[in-house]
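Protein in question filed below.

…
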Amino acid sequence: MAMAVVSAPGKINLTLDILGRRADGYHEMEMLMHAVSLENTVYLTGQEESGIRLDCSNPAVPAGENNLAYRAAQTFFSAWGHSFGLELRVEKRVPMEAGMAGGSADAAGVLIGLNALAGDPFSAEELCQIGLGLGADVPFCIVGGAALVQGIGERITPLPPLGDGWLAIVKPAAGVKTAGCFAAYDALASVRRPDTPQALAALQKGDLPALGLLLENVLEQAAALPEVPKIRENMLKSGALGSRMTGSGSAVYGLFAEKKQALRCARRMYQFGGSFFLARPVGYGAKLLYLG
């Protein structure tokens, strides 16, 4: 049977701002996002037997309809109007409950892979529309690179990706539930907001020092994890140009000009427990590696 292999990068938020809460309960967002070289791999194999079967390298990841990759396959087949037996295998590298869109990356990988297996019935724009119904980060995970993301994730303006820079990423043992983080944000009396236009200008220029000073995330103020400010402080002492929590947390990244600085910083983070990663900004989203 036919098989597709897709690489699915996670992401970081260079900035994250909440402009308000809509009548439908969703939050109006404005974010600068960047794909990173910490990537999951999705294997999709057509099967003669009907149905969807899912296996994941991380046993803590739920199977069946509680898994976003599984739901992505269901949603694709529904939109396409056809289906076939499918075996999914997800190799996880992006940490869970980290604010790095690991589940959304899986969903994006499934949509890209199934579209290829089905003979490309959908354009990239149509896949983004399908993906939005699965999660706000899925469209960006399809597009990837660097982008200004607005609305609830549906308005994506691609930007020149960073050609330089390294990231030291720490995922504390404690995770953060997205819904709880947004609820805590809604209860805040005041917040410190990013200067998105200035950060956008720095990103477009590829000015890492200026961008580092402009990293900001309003949800960091709501997450209330004591590890986050401690990790940030240590990253800045290690020479990071800037450091922030990404998404709704709990992963924290430091932006560095050189690999050796980022690697040295990552090695100093063991005191905080959890997981540690070295990554680079990348200029792509979920991409097909193999089709045959």
